[in-house]
Amino acid sequence: MAFYPFLGNANDFSGNQNHGIIYGPVAVDDRFGNSSGAYLFDGIDDYIKILDSDNLSAVDQQLTIATWVKVIDGSNKFILYKGSSLYNRSMHLE
Questions:
Q1: In this model, does residue 76 exceed pLDDT 80?
Q2: How many CB atoms lie within 10 A of CB 15?
Q3: Whole-angstrom Cα distance, residue 3 to residue 18?
Q4: Cα-based distances in Å from 44 to 25, 27, 32, 51, 53
Q5: pLDDT in tens, 13-39
Q6: Rounded to 5 degrees, what are φ and ψ at 54?
Q7: Which of 38, 44, 48, 50 has its CA 20 to 30 A from that of 85?
Q8: Long-range pairs of 68-75 with CB within 8 A, sequence gap ≥ 24
Q9: In the chain, how many H helices and how many E strands?
């Protein structure tokens, strides 16, 4: 479906061309110390947008998502969502 190793960009390395567009977050070292292997979001308006694609949809209402996330503050923020607005989301991860 999609694979984002974050090598200083949000390109999809799965071969499915689901590349991300970066809006604000800063590339930082990842948890293993790899340069630009992660992104730091400000918690206000930073995000990475991935355009809708049929190969990013759940199959038989099943979808697996794996991610490493370090939350700096306890605010209720979305980590991932699919949809066009707060009330038009087919899935979300908080």
A1: no
A2: 8
A3: 9
A4: 10, 17, 26, 21, 26
A5: 999 999 999 999 999 999 999 999 999
A6: -60, -35
A7: 38
A8: 68/30, 68/31, 68/38, 70/31, 72/43, 73/43, 75/43
A9: 0, 6
